[in-house]
Amino acid sequence: MNTTGLTFDIPKREEVSENNQAIFDQLKGKIGFVPNLYAFYAKNETALGDYLALQNRKSTLKAKEKEVVNLVTSQINGCRYCQSAHTAIGKMNGFTDEQILELRKGEASFDQKLEALVKLSAAIVENKGKVDDATKEAFFNAGYDQANLIDVVMLVGDKIISNYIHNLTGFEIDFPIAPEL
Predict the structure, then answer these.
(1) CB < 8 Å & 24+ apart, contacts of 134-143
(2) pLDDT tens digits, 15-25
(3) Using CB atoms within 10 A of its CB, is residue 105 exposed (0-12), middle (13-18) or buried (19+)?
């Protein structure tokens, strides 16, 4: 939460560059609104497009697996915005409320393969990439490969960017607020 007394406003469409206005229009057409996080990126001429390119890159991970990484990373980094956004997206990808809470707690008792992904993701974030061999072996033994490992790291990096932006600014969360753990 932003406790400095500073406020960070979310720009409106007419306050951003033409390039970012076009991206706003695409987002509005695709998801029905421009999330505050994306709008905040538009304060910078290239950050929104760059971030969306990173976020939308082709991945070896399935949508549910990506949400596992997003939820675990956002929980460890204490980002309420991303916890809330990815709770909503996780539900759209078939996770129950109970499963989402379990994932945020660093567990996936309901799926052995996802359990290995949860543990690896948490270890990457908590240890700045220095993960013990047992955690990596469990990940590979669960059926993941080295290409998947690269995509997990790419996704952790993607989510850290957003976590840090919101943690620095504390602007309004425009998704249903995820429950506290």
Answers:
(1) 141/116, 142/112, 142/113, 142/115, 142/116, 142/117, 143/113
(2) 999 999 999 99
(3) middle
CATH of the domain at 45: 1.20.5
Report the predicted TM-score, pTM, of the whole model to 2 decimal places. Answer: 0.95
Would you say residue 175 has pLDDT above 80?
Answer: yes
What the block records as the tokens of 73 is 């990373």
Question: Taken in order 70, 111, 99, 32, is the CA torsion positive or negative?
Answer: positive
For residues 104 and 156, membership in a common domain is answered with: yes
Helices (H), the chain: 18-31, 36-41, 47-55, 63-76, 80-92, 97-104, 112-126, 133-141, 146-169
Q: Tell me the per-residue pLDDT of 27-60, one tens digit each, with 9 for 90 and over.
A: 999 999 999 999 999 999 999 999 999 999 999 9
CATH number where 89 lies: 1.20.1290.10
Region of residue 49 (phi > 0: left; psi between -120 and 50: alpha; otherwise: beta):
alpha
